[in-house]
């Protein structure tokens, strides 16, 4: 019993020393800048997945996709990890699933085109012709145009939900199949 008590007391004091001092006399970090920015939501898939799909991702573009030229690496703001083939439902958060930008964190800002994109190519490609949009994020109550994603500084935007209906696909941006 005394050994257990001594071990607990020793562990307790070590924990206080390691975690209690924090950064010592370092200046405090502004509370707004310490909060990560991002977004989360869910994707619902209806219908049968095409067998020829090689990869599926949530993709975010800063500017609208009004021309083939808008589908480029400089406009690309976020690419999620791959969504499993055949999924009926996929919950996600940009805080732990991103590849682009480096580190996966999307900064505060305004984004014009959020979609689920699928590729039929074995190779990773940035050519518009190699991707099909399976679902688009629409603004609340308006399924006629893509919704804007506005991420305020230090906030997580919730409910960025996308429906992918394989029997009734959305309009494709310019340059698609």
Could you please describe the fold and organization of this structure?
This protein has 177 residues and is an alpha+beta fold. The chain has a single domain (36-165), classed as Immunoglobulin-like (Sandwich). 15% of the residues lie in helices and 34% in strands. The strands form 4 sheets. Strands 5-3-2-7-8 form a 5-stranded antiparallel β-sheet. Strands 1, 4, 12 and 13 form a 4-stranded mixed β-sheet that branches. The radius of gyration is 22 Å and the shape is globular.
Quickly describe the structure:
This protein has 177 residues and is an alpha+beta fold.
Count of individual domains: 1
Q: List the total number of helices.
A: 3
> What is the C-level CATH assignment?
Mainly Beta
**Radius of gyration from the CA trace?**
22 Å
Low-confidence stretches: 1-32
Question: Assembly state here?
Answer: single chain
Widest beta sheet: strand line-up = 5-3-2-7-8
**Structural class by secondary-structure content:** alpha+beta
**% residues in beta strands:** 25-35%
State the CATH architecture.
Answer: Sandwich
Largest sheet: 5 strands, antiparallel
How far apart, in Å, are the first and last alpha carbons? 72 Å
């Amino acid at each position: 019993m005394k050994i257990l008590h001594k071990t607990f007391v020793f562990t307790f004091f070590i924990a206080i020393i390691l975690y209690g001092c924090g950064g010592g006399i370092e200046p405090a970090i502004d509370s707004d800048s310490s909060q990560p920015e991002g977004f989360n939501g869910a994707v619902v898939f209806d219908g049968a997945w095409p067998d020829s799909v090689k990869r599926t991702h949530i993709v975010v573009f800063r500017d609208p996709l009004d021309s083939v030229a808008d589908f480029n690496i400089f406009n690309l703001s976020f690419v999620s990890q791959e969504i499993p083939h055949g999924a009926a439902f996929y919950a996600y958060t940009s805080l732990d699933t991103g590849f682009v930008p480096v580190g996966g964190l999307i900064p505060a800002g305004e984004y014009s085109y959020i979609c689920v994109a699928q590729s039929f190519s074995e190779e990773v490609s940035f050519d518009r012709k190699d991707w099909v949009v399976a679902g688009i994020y629409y603004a609340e109550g308006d399924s006629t145009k893509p919704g804007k994603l506005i991420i305020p500084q230090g906030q997580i935007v919730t409910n960025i939900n996308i429906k992918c209906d394989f029997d009734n696909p959305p309009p494709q941006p310019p340059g698609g199949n």
